[in-house]
Every structure is written in C-alpha cells, then in structure tokens.
UniProtKB/TrEMBL annotation:
This is HTH-type transcriptional regulator TrpI. Keywords: Amino-acid biosynthesis, Aromatic amino acid biosynthesis, DNA-binding, Repressor, Transcription, Transcription regulation, Tryptophan biosynthesis. Signal peptide: none annotated. Belongs to the LysR transcriptional regulatory family. GO terms for molecular function: DNA-binding transcription factor activity; sequence-specific DNA binding.
C-alpha cells in the first residue's frame, strides 16, 4: 500500500531551500524563521529516512536524493502554480450573473452601467431582471442585488450596501402640485395616492413614521410593479411612494419633487452572494456599489 505524501509544508520549505541553496534565504522568502525551515527539512529527512543536504563549508550541498526530490518538487509545484493561475483566470473570465429587480435595474443600475464597465473592465457582468420574487439561490446566479430586511439566511453572504429610505414624490406637472406646495405631510390624507401591489405596506410604513394613521390615506390607482408606478408619477398622474435611491436622479434633475423627505424602513439594499461562490468578483462589485451609493 502506497504511503501518504510527506507534509506539503515540509516539501515546500525543502523546495525553496534547495532552489535558493540557502536555509536563510528560504526563511526570508517564506516569511518564517531560519529554525522553522530547518525543522521542516529535518522532519522531511526523518520521514524519508535519507539525508537531503550535506554540509559544504558554511553552505549546503544537495545529496543525490536531495537533487532528485528538488527536481520532482520543482516540477510539481510549478504545475500547481500553473493550474491555480488557470483557475483564477477562468473564474475572472466567467460571466458574473447579477439578478436584481427590474425597477432597480432600469432606474439606477443601467444609467451607471457604462461607468461600471470602465471602472471594472475585468468583471464580465451579465444582468437578470425580475419584478417578481427574487431567488438568490437560483442556479447560475452569482449574486443578487435587492432590498430586504434582516435576519439574513446562514447559507448566503449578505453585504448591506445602503439603508432603504422611502417617501412621497410627484412631478411638477401634477395638477395638484401647487396645492401641495408648502403643506405639511397631513395634506396627503386628502390626496388620492398612487401605489404598487408589489409593496402594499409602503404607504402605511411611511404614514406611521410621520405619526399619521395609515387608515386615513386614500390609496387610489395601483400598479403591478414599482417601475410603472414611478413612470406614472413622472407623467404627472399623482403622488407615489418611492425608494429614495430609485428617484435620486429625477430629484436632482427636477423631474420629481419630494417636499416631505424620506424615512428609513428597516430594509437595506444588499448584495446577496451564495456561500459557494467565489467572493473575489463579488467583493469588486461590492466596492463599486458602495462608492456609487
């Protein structure tokens, strides 16, 4: 029966010492002490039952067995280095499939996509959008960007990017814009409000934060998805409830107004990465997201 290989740490210490022909230089290259390299080599010699080095003045000289093992280790470690580099390059070249809600993709991500491609050219990003329930465990998905509230599941690595804030918004073209100007949030209890069926509690959450009774609000026209709701607000059809992140550009350009500000909801925009997935590309995307938000 074949014996197990000696310790890989011992083989590595020997390979470096043999290649550099110096225990001291090997210790420096491996960022360990001279004694640590010497002990690894002695352990290896004891396990193999043969001397690998002879003393040659103040230096070391490889024995015949040492030369044979040096050549074998050099070839083996060289092959391992090549294989690891190939794996890294293949991982970096593989598509990184990011799933996210369609409204987030259309209103925030796509306007910044060109910037992302310039700043992270090595990230082969593919996008998958849905307005339904997102499944961060779906096969093939590298990561999911979405709003959610903790606790986070144990089988996912969740990186919070920004806290969610929501508030009422309307277009300057809205027929009631002049009537709402300069009024307190209380006036919205007399206003027909636009809402989305994908987030039915949004208006109620905002009302409670404003010390208003949710029952006093009149939720009128409803839309299936948040994207359609925001398009309706931009068209001047009424007052909508929206995440600040998704209307920030519209507010900056004056296409929407938010006179009552925004309140936190307890949800966060987070990057959800399956525990099985290589984290390096996710970390690069996370850094970019944090910078943009």
């Amino acid at each position: 029966m074949a014996r197990d290989l000696p310790s890989l740490n011992a083989l590595k210490a020997f390979e470096v010492a043999a290649r550099l022909e110096s225990v001291s230089q090997a210790a420096e290259a491996l960022h360990v002490t001279h004694g640590a390299v010497s002990r690894q080599i002695r352990t290896l010699e004891q396990e193999l039952g043969v001397a690998l080095f002879d003393k040659a003045g103040r230096g070391l000289r490889l024995t015949a067995a040492g030369r044979r093992l040096r050549d074998a280790c050099g070839e083996a470690f060289g092959q391992l280095r090549l294989a690891c580099e190939d794996i890294r390059q293949a991982e970096q070249a593989a598509p990184f499939l990011l799933a996210c809600p369609g409204s987030l993709l259309a209103r925030w991500f796509i306007p910044r996509l060109d910037r992302l491609q310039r700043q992270l050219p090595q990230l082969n990003l593919h996008l998958s959008a849905s307005e339904g329930e997102l499944d961060p465990r779906r096969p093939g998905v590298s990561a999911t960007l979405m709003f959610a509230a903790p606790p986070w599941p144990a089988d996912m690595q969740v990186y919070p990017v920004a806290k969610e804030r929501i508030g009422p918004v309307f277009s300057p073209r809205y027929a009631g814009a002049q009537r709402l100007h300069g009024q307190s949030a209380q006036i919205l209890t007399t206003e027909p409000l636009l809402h989305t069926r994908s987030r039915p509690q949004a208006w109620a959450d905002w009302a409670r934060a404003q010390q208003l009774e949710p029952q006093a609000l009149n939720q009128a026209q409803g839309f299936e998805h948040l994207y359609y709701l925001l398009e309706a607000a931009l068209a001047g059809l009424g007052v909508a409830i929206a995440p600040q992140l998704l209307v920030a550009d519209d507010l900056a350009e004056g296409r929407l107004l938010a006179p009552w500000g925004f309140v936190e909801t307890g949800h966060s925009l987070g990057l959800w990465v399956p525990a099985r997935h290589n984290q390096s590309q996710a970390q690069a995307l996370l850094g970019w997201l944090e910078e943009q938000v």
